Amino acid sequence: MNVQRFLKHWKRKLRRKRSLLTLGMFFLAGIAGWQLYASNTGLNAGRSGADVRSAMAQLTPVDNERLKETMETLKRITDSRESYLLKSYVCGEEKSQLGLQTSEQLLAMQLKHPEWVFSLNAGGEVTFTENIEDLSPACKEKAVFGIDGSSNLSLFNGTPTKDNVIRTFFQLNIQYLESSLPRDTVQQLHEGIRVSDIEEYNSVLSTFSDYAVEETERAMTRP
Fold first, then answer.
1. Beta strands 126-135 and 81-91: pairing type?
2. Residue 164 CB: number of other CB atoms within 10 A?
3. Do the Cβ atoms of 74 and 85 come closer than 8 Å?
């Protein structure tokens, strides 16, 4: 039985969804704070107010609190700062340079991409982090699920060896796994299962999570 056909029979257990919440008075207070900032830094308050309403409508209260903290940080920046964009994938990262940015430009960048996470390092460099629910291009080419030397389900950069581990997930109950799954599926896991997109990645995780040591121990102790 081909492992990809086998995996398609398993329902994905986890799927992250971004929920949109009504922000109420918190939302209005956040807009007022951003408009005050726009006024203090010489930005066009009317234009910024519209941008802020659009940006905040997409976010949760926690994320809006983050935007307020970004505002406070930007108030203290009076010169241009080197800035970067870090794309953080489920598997892999990519970093690119955005160039020198003023406080006003950084604010405009944040409002245009409210989901990006702003950070300032000790050297004064700014990084926006974009969290992406996908595999990086490099991972799509090389990512392989397999078993490491401690019987853990792990993701490897190519051939499953100890030097190629990208991430370790959980320990597998090998005996239970081998007695429950088709032999060719188990063999493919030992040899390495290539994943080239987020659907395959989630499918493999969902399938083999049922054979995690903690999961099987709980199943054995149920009355």
1. parallel
2. 17
3. no
